[in-house]
Please model this.
Amino acid sequence: MLTDTSILDNIAIILVHPKFPENIGAAARTIFNMGLSQLIVVSDRKLDSTAMTKMATHNATHIIDAMEVFPTLEQAVAPFSFIVGTTARRGRQRGSERSPRQIVTELAPLVTNNRAAFLFGPENCGLTNEELKYCHATSAIPTNGFSSLNLAQAVAIHCYELYHGLIHERKDIEPVPRIATSFELEGMYEHVEKALVRINFLEAKNHTYWMNNIRGFLGRMRLSSRESNIIRGICRQFIRHQKQQEEEQQVP
Amino acid sequence: MLTDTSILDNIAIILVHPKFPENIGAAARTIFNMGLSQLIVVSDRKLDSTAMTKMATHNATHIIDAMEVFPTLEQAVAPFSFIVGTTARRGRQRGSERSPRQIVTELAPLVTNNRAAFLFGPENCGLTNEELKYCHATSAIPTNGFSSLNLAQAVAIHCYELYHGLIHERKDIEPVPRIATSFELEGMYEHVEKALVRINFLEAKNHTYWMNNIRGFLGRMRLSSRESNIIRGICRQFIRHQKQQEEEQQVP
Model:
């Protein structure tokens, strides 16, 4: 008899530019074993389906068949509302990193009504800062010193924690309502950026730095879809108002 | 700066007749990453050191170099006092299986003064009942249904839980004193067996069944070295007494 694992259907594993198709297969096997179902790959290369299927074993072939492939990360994360970037432990940014177990605890009330994704970078270098921009949280597996696990093992440990925390030891968790998707947030950030450029808050030399800071705190707020629309509305109105002022000044 | 992980030196990962040297290498990498140091292999075949070292990566080469290889499991487990057998979830025996997390919680007070080992069976079939005889506890990774992880991932999840529970989230744990090693217990079981055969408690047709039951509860008791010697002393004395009686009966 299988446990009800439907909540895990709201969670995707996203492999960002993986180098070895075997690792995609190994991820598929783990995803299946831990009751998850969604595997997404960001890649612009042709993927070797024989190598993938061999590592997936026949039990998890359907995960490979249903796998979605996107050329860019932005497209891949668009429908998700809570995005976790996985990284190796790093000295400097350690403060902001949480363990997979802490992440799952945080995720638990969210995933009833929201879709979440875990991003895993390429085998040799991990996620770039540009890719981490899409993330609302960062997860680092506690290891001894600064060593790192291989990709398949990192995926296995995250899927294991998801199954353990959300199904095996699920406690009564109060679900939170639907929050904004990445698509909605990106649209909002674009509006915010336009408005901030307009008031010269964002100047060429520190544009990205400040914008990343703003994304950081807006991303952490877990805005609802409605709230992100309100922020967009404010920006839109602000830009409109500025334009009117400029036009009035030009009229003598 | 590295955390003090010396307690993990008391824990060994034992691969029992692994088929693929790559999995030995992958285990070595995880062992290193999670602050452990001891890898033991039970095998009567020549191990391909190129394949092992490649998967271990150069960081963990020293784990492969220091790896011990034994022809039998009995020799491999001899110095250990707490032995955990890892299995896939099975319907029938599920009651006696614990999750890796529960096992680590149970292990925590033991490993300050005692050596513990985790046994992993071959990739295709897992540990036999004969091999599970040496174990004081059984650990099964919670998965969806009766699916099973691959060997390297099962090792990774156990090492991760060990590091997580014993180092990363270590709470103040009251250590327990040294308990009997497998070598001491096996000697004791042999003595117990002799005594029970002597009194016809163990008959040919159900010998193994009853002996396994006795091993089961004696193994769970966590006898100290001294206590196992007391039990041996009782058996020895019992056998001696029986012999005397028999000899007296033969004297008319």
Notes: The longest strand of chain A covers residues 11-16.
